[in-house]
Amino acid sequence: MDFKQALRNSGLPYRVNAALFGMAATLSCVGVPRLLALWSEEASPSEARRNRIESGDERNTALRNRSKALSGDLLQWSLLGLFWLSVGLDAPLWVTAAAGGLFMAKSVLEAVLLSRFQKEL
After folding, report:
1. How much is the mean pLDDT over the chain?
2. For the chain, which residues make up each domain, given as ranges?
3. Do 99 and 86 form a contact (C-beta atoms < 8 A)?
4. How many CA within 13 A on the CB side of residue 60?
5. How many CB atoms lie within 10 A of CB 87?
6. What is the pTM of this model?
7. Residue 40 pLDDT more than 60?
8. Residue 121 pLDDT > 70, yes or no?
9. CA atoms within 13 A on the CB side of 75
10. Which of 42, 61, 94, 97 is 20 to 30 A from residue 79's alpha carbon, by CA?
């Protein structure tokens, strides 16, 4: 029996099966690297200790924060590009609205977090 047939015979709607499959794939993508990291720590405790010290280092923390900020900028410009591309290609309205909504949500979240962090300082 193939995968598609198994989904049809499960008795659940196809969308529910697809959502469950997506969640399982996401959890496995998150869980497998963590499992490998735990296995690596068990195999080499001195390497695990060195990694913990490096992860708490101020320089490494600053580099991680900088890379997160750059990835946020890339995401923002990609969403804006997708928005204009969908407008230019006369895509369905929901595609354009989704791209615009995601861009707006990212911008609002950025402003809220900036305000929160400024209050903490």
Report:
1. 78
2. 1-56, 66-121
3. yes
4. 8
5. 13
6. 0.45
7. yes
8. no
9. 13
10. 61
Residue 43 and residue 73 in contact, taking contact as beta carbons nearer than 8 Å = no
Mean predicted confidence (pLDDT) in 78-92 = 83
Instruction: Assign 3-class secondary structure to the chain.
Output: CCHHHHHHHCCCCHHHHHHHHHHHHHHHHHHHHHHHHHHHHHHCHHHHHHHHHHHHCHHHHHHHHHHHHHHHHHHHHHHHHHHHHHHHCCCCHHHHHHHHHHHHHHHHHHHHHHHHHHHHC
Candidates 76, 80, 71, 68; CA nearest to 107 is 76
**Which tokens is 101 given?**
């909504």
Sign, CA dihedral 97-103-106-108, equals negative
Cβ contact 96:83 at 8 Å: yes
What is the CA 41 to chain-centroid distance, rounded?
Answer: 25
Q: What is the token pair recorded at 58?
A: 């101020």
Task: Give me the count of residues in the chain.
Answer: 121
Neighbours of 80 (CB within 10 A): 16
